[in-house]
Amino acid sequence: MPRGTTKRRPQTLARLLDAALEVFAESGFGAARIEDVCRRAGYTRGAFYSNFSSKEELFFALFDAHAARELERIAQLAADTDDRDLSVARIAALLAHIGPNERVWFLVTTEFTLYAIRNPGAAARLADHDARLREEAAALLDALLTRAGLRPRGDLTELVRAVVALREGALGQSYVEPDVLAPGALAERFLPFLVEAVTEPLP
C-alpha cells in the first residue's frame, strides 16, 4: 500500500480520523462505509487507501490516538499535582475523569467491541492494542503510587483492567440515565476504595 510522505499527509490523516469518528459514532462501525468517511472528510477512496488498508486499521488509528491523549492528560494533571496532595482520592479522581466529548468515543469503541466479539481476527487485534494501553497505563499508575508513598499488592495491569471495567460500565449507565448518574461520578466515588484495597504503604 503506498504511503508516501507529503506535506499534506498529516492534514489528510487528521481529516480522515475526524470524519471516521463522526461516521462511526453516528452509524456504528459495522454499518459505516469507507465511502461515508471519505465523503465526510472531502476525499476520494484513493486518499483513504493511501493512508489506511481497511476500516479496521482506521479504527485502530483512532484507538491509539485516543489512548495517547488520555495518558497524556493523566500525566499532565499528575505533573501539576504536588506530591503532598497526591492522595488515593486524588489518584482516583485522575483516573475517573471523563471529558466532555467522551460520549462519542464510548459509542465508537462499544460498537467496535461488539464487532470484535463476533470476529476473532478483530478481537485478537483489539486485545493487542488493549494490552499495550494497559502496559503504558500501569507504568503511569506505578509512578503515581510511588509518588504517593504506595506500592501495589499485585499485578498493576490487573488493576488497570478493573479501573477500565468500572469506568466503562459506569459510563454506559450514565449515558442511559444522564439525569440520574453524571459521567464519571460512580467511578470517582468507588475508585478510591479499589485503589486503597490493592495498595499498601511503601516500606
TrEMBL record:
Domain of life (superkingdom): Bacteria
Organism ancestry: Bacteria, Bacillati, Actinomycetota, Actinomycetes, Kitasatosporales
Organism: Streptomyces xanthochromogenes
Domain HTH tetR-type: 10-70
Pfam families linked to this entry: TetR_C_6, TetR_N
DNA-binding feature ranges: 33-52
This protein's name: TetR-family regulatory protein
UniProt keywords, alphabetically: DNA-binding, Repressor, Transcription, Transcription regulation
